[in-house]
Amino acid sequence: MSQPAQQSIAVLIPCFNEATTIETVIRDFREQLPEATICVFDNNSTDQTAEIARNAGAEVWTETRRGKGNVVRRMFAEIEADIYLMVDGDATYDAASARAMIRELNQKGLDMVVGRRVPAVSGAYRAGHQVGNQMLTNAVARIFGYLLTDILSGYRAMSRRFVKSFPAMSSGFETETELTIHSLQLRLPVGEIETPYFTRPQGSSSKLNTGPDGFRILWTIVRMFVLEKPFQFFFILFLLFLTAASMLFIPVLLEYFETGLVLKFPSLIVAMAGYMMALLCLVMGTLLHTATLSRLEARRFRYLDTPKSG
Prior knowledge:
Elements: E1 9-15, H1 22-32, E2 37-42, H2 49-55, E3 59-62, H3 68-78, E4 83-86, H4 98-107, E5 112-119, H5 127-144, E6 156-159, H6 160-165, H7 175-185, E7 190-197, H8 210-228, H9 230-259, H10 265-305
Parallel strand pairs: 1-2, 1-4, 2-3, 5-7
Antiparallel strand pairs: 4-6, 5-6
């Protein structure tokens, strides 16, 4: 199935202080997708990013609240298109892969295609980032299911249905994780293709802080686990409280059978409190699971209510 001629394409480029690279990114994607609208969303940069992008012919928007998640929320709300191609403005992603990603999206009827980063040169993809990406990918796979191998890639082609049903709750770099979990929770068809990943040009610096951003992404996974899988989360707490309470209660019970007396009242009291907490976790998990199903159902209906691309 070929791409319909009437499909509109928007290239969304979130930027913060990318004056060194933004003109190159705009030029490269215009060459590869001349029919697309290039939209640069400047995240309140302190350099000339917005001015350079405007002079290069892109539509420029400004989001004053710092954080990639805030930018993504604004992009998805403001821009209307059939296909959305999101890419960072640091010139590390391969514009020549754009057409292949869109073709994959159309031919297989997918809602998202992720550009899986393959280092084009040694050192383009730092070892620490690769290890962290793999760990976070494995964490998401264990909790929500296996789907993608590069969940932190910032290069994605998405359908209108996907974009308009995405809640965009995060504020920072953890938004890529949220995009992946959204597709897993709604069981949307997604794909992945390899794309070269380049080093940043001289004069361009990364905005990533490996440690803090890694913890933020990990916290996002935990938060999404609680929000999207509440029964599983609270069932784990139920088992922990049940086990701890039983470890205190069983010796008291055995002692009572032997002597007819309860000599360790503090242990008994703590054990009863533990059993109550276990029961409370089970009830909370059940109630929140019902609420989560309602939220997922509403998001699914929002997805189905959005017209297909083209």
